[in-house]
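<purpose> Linking amino acid order to shape
<body> The protein record starts here
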Amino acid sequence: MKREVSVHATPEELLKLDQDGFLVRENAIQGQWLDSLRSALDRLTEAEWHEHRPSDSDEELPDRSWGIVLRHLLDKDTAFHDLLTWPTALSVARGMMGPLVRLRGLSARVSFGGAEPQDTPWHQHLRVISKPLPRWFSRPHAIDCLIYLDEVNEETGTLSVIPGSHHWLDREPPHLKHESMPGEQTLNLPAGSMVIIHSNLWHRALDTQAGKRRMLILAYTPCWLRESPHGGPPPEDGLTSELLATGDQEIRELLGVTGFT
C-alpha cells in the first residue's frame, strides 16, 4: 500500500538530524495554543502536586531532583490532543523512521526555582545496546520532541546536548554526572520552541534558578516497538479510550492499536 508523507523539514535538515541527533524549531507553538498548553499543564501540576512534593513543611527537601514529572497527558486533558497528529513533529518522525510510527508517550517535566537544585545529569532516553554487538543487531531508534512552554535561558535552565552522541554504541553517559563535558552545546530558546532529538542523544538540563520551566516530551517510535514503561499503566478511565472509539485509522495507529504485525 502506497503512503505519501509531507515532511515539515528539508532534506538538509533531516540529514542534520541524522548527523547531529537534534533539530531546533524556534517558536513552533505560539498564541492561544501555547496559552492553552500552559494552562492545562498548570492544572495537572496543581492536581498532582501532593504526589511529587513534600506535604509537610517540616519534611526535608531532597538534595537534588528532576522537579515534577507528569505522565500520560493524553489521558488527562483534551488540551493535549492536538499534539498527537501535530505535523511539525509527527511528519519529521515519519521522515526519519518511515510512515509507520506510534506515540511512545506524552509526558511533562516542570522545574522551578527556590527549591533544591533541579538540574538533570547527562542521560539518554532509549538505551538498548548490547555489548558486544550481536551480528544481527538492530539499532533502536526513537524521536523525542522537547517542547518548551517557557523561555529557556540561564535563569530557567538551559538545555545542553552533545552533537553526534546518539551514534556512540560503545559507551553510555557517566553515572550522575552534572558537569560540563567536551563537545557540549548549550541552547537558549524562546518560549514555544521545540528541540527534536534522537532518544539516544546525550543531553542534560541545567538548574532552574528562578521562575519555572515547563516542558512537554512528545515521543515517537516505530509502530512495532512497545509503549514506554515509564510512569506505569495509564489511567483506566483515560481520555485515549475516547480517542480510540472516535478516531480514524491514523489515530489508532499512533496510539499503538494497528500498524504492526
Observations:
- Strands lie at 22-25, 68-70, 101-112, 143-148, 159-161, 185-187, 193-198, 203-205, 212-222.
